[in-house]
Amino acid sequence: MAASSANKGKSVKPPKLKPTPTTKDAYTKMVAPKPVDLSKEEEMAAYREMLLIRRFEEKAGQLYGMGHIGGFCHLYIGQEAVVVGMQMAAIEGDQVITGYRDHGHMLSCGMDPKGVMAELTGRSGGLSKGKGGSMHMFSKEKHFYGGHGIVGGQVSLGTGLAFANWYRDSENVSMAYFGDGASNQGQVYESFNMAALWKLPVIYIIENNRYAMGTSVHRASAMMDFSQRGASFNIPGIQVDGMDVRAVKAAADLATAYCRSGQGPIILEMQTYRYRGHSMSDPAKYRSKDEVQKMRAESDPIEQVKQRILADKIASEDDLKAIDKEIREIVANAADFAQNDPLPEPSELYTDILI
Amino acid sequence: MSVQILMPALSPTMEEGNLAKWLVKEGDKVSSGDVIAEIETDKATMEVEAVDEGTIAKIVIPAGTEGVKVNELIAILAEEGEDVSAAASGGGSAPAPAAEETTSDAPAPAKVAAEPIKVEVAADPDIPAGTEMVSMTVREALNSAMAEEMRADKNVFIMGEEVAEYQGAYKITQGLLDEFGPRRVIDTPITEHGFAGIGVGAAMTGLKPIVEFMTFNFAMQAIDQIINSAAKTLYMSGGQMGAPMVFRGPNGAAARVGAQHSQCYAAWYGHIPGLKVVMPYTAADYKGLMKAAIRDPNPVIFLENEILYGQSFDVPKVDDFVLPIGKARIHKKGSDCTIVSFSIGMTYAIKAAEELAKEGIDCEIIDLRTIRPLDMETVIASVKKTGRLVTVEEGFPQSSVGDHIAAQIVQKAFDYLDAPVITICGKDVPMPYAANLEKLALPNVGEVIEAVKAVTYR
Q1: Which residues in A113-147 are b (16+ Cβ under 10 Å) and which e?
Q2: Is residue A4 in some structural domain?
Q3: In a domain, A7, yes or no
Q4: How far is B423 from chain A (nearest CA, A)?
Q5: Which of A19-23, A212-216, A316-320, B403-407 has the lowest mean pLDDT?
Q6: Does the beta-carbon distance from A353 to B234 stay under 8 Å?
Q7: In the prediction, which pLDDT does A4 show?
Q8: Using the beta-carbon criterion (under 8 Å), do B238 and A126 form an inter-chain contact?
Q9: Which domain holds residue A67?
Q10: The CATH number of the domain where A157 resides is what?
Q11: What is the pLDDT of residue A29?
């Protein structure tokens, strides 16, 4: 680093800055609501949905390894409680939009596993007729707006979905998911500003899985309380245990009620973890095996529900095994379909460019 | 010494204005900073302040005078101690009007004409012969097109910087807030990337946003959302959802606004599948194509030109005037050489053709109107007739719209060519600020004349 000649040889002390406390300091920090007790039905549904995502993603990983899936493939394993808990608070018409780690969101929105898997293999029966791929699937019917490959792009788009709700006087809210990495993109803050200015019904769900590709949050973010990333715009934020579906559901209940009542946007920082690498080609050398193992052993979202189900005798081991079997079957069927469905017709190359 | 007060320029492209009101009368004492008059342009009303102390000796241009040229003498100020009546009778020191600069090698550098341009709209097959015409500026054409479509469809709204309360940075949205209210005419913060994305998101749900960029130069901040989200979603979703919307605003060089505010994006957006790109010249085309763009279920880039905003053209007086996107218009029929141009490039093409006609060279001028989808059929048909092609545009030369047309002609009509195609573009330099350099950087009529003569071997 070049030093000016006047300062040569002198050690220059940086000026000390004292923080000026204001009454607004804690204005946007909201205390996380206590995890809600789920009903028996909700516990079972959460187990089933999270398990579907887990088994689906494991299968996708296998198919990728076998060369049936090409390009990029980002798995959601470990983060299942986030989208499943959020969807428990959704009503018909609420929109969901996310980035490229999107398979779990699609399944949770009720999109057909066959259609998702066939899109991963690039077949004509894929949700985008094989023209989108892992990162680009949509469903008008299920109000799922993608699947976006440009980090942070979905945040402005998701704010636009909320704008449409506001424009139409609808009670629906937009749920815009993005990661700790996307949280540093400029358009996120442009969107925060407009959402707060116009009081748009959008829940910004920051899935903080601690790594933006291979860069840990400590190396990429000057301020690591992601729930406070909207503080400049007076957007309240909550830090949520994203590994506990009950905590997510509680936060989702609060956030949806807040948005539906016309108070504007809210941020939920979901503290979560992905077990797999960023994508299939990521050996994940930036973190220790122990770190991953510890999360798996102590915080696994599916295991937490399973233990509660058994402890509270909501269902027996055999009941859960039956569910596992059923889910494996759904996933196996999806994989079969995805491998046997025909490739898109060459004529599809030139369709869907313009209406 | 008395001081001459001259008609001020209120914007980079202003050439004349109306002297709406004098706030002083002859004999009044004024000091520096006093408001002495109000000047009106089609964009705004502005106050004129005195820049010197003294007494108003004479008001040369009375209030209510229209079409006062920039730098015309409007009043004379007698300085302190000076004989007012002597000052009024003339003399005085005047700030020298900006010298009219001309380039020696160009015969008449394209001058922006304030008078209505005669356009052969009858040649447009989309307008039936005998249709009654009204004179309208490009600004009025755009404004009325948007207002009509907003009246017809509640899903249409406009958002952008200064579109509502300020009435539009270039007054294109004037009056829309009053008529349609703040939900449909929305002022945004200065965050192009963010509000373009919000517009696309809203469009994905079926709303029909018009996103105004104050200029397309600022849309480079938003180009990711325009291309990656608006243009590609229909394809990526297998046809399930797209972005039925319009991105619009002034594009290309205005006058003396420097490198960062003077770029043409026709070739940039013309490159992208999933977009339609419209770039009209006449007010009739602005109106008919803006209405078509708003109704189009695809994302449409509507590239306007600030210099054309204030120009008047004949527009058909019909209730719902819509033109087809993707169809070029033969502006003038001819047999010797085809000139293809669009937007403000047409001004060079038309003037050159007029000059060439005097020398007996009969040019056919095609106004593309739409850059994507490009109406090559019309261009090819014309080249088959004339055997020669010159393209004219203000954008940079490499990978220009003209380059693409030239390549297409070589591939599809090579045997009909009697001479190499010449593409006239802006020069391969960032836009300079100095008036003489700016003129050199833009195409000019002389270059077009020279090119046509070269391909017709005259």
Answers
A1: bbbbbbbbbbbebbbbbbbbbbbbbbbeebbbbbb
A2: no
A3: no
A4: 29
A5: A19-23
A6: yes
A7: 46
A8: yes
A9: 28-339
A10: 3.40.50.970
A11: 82
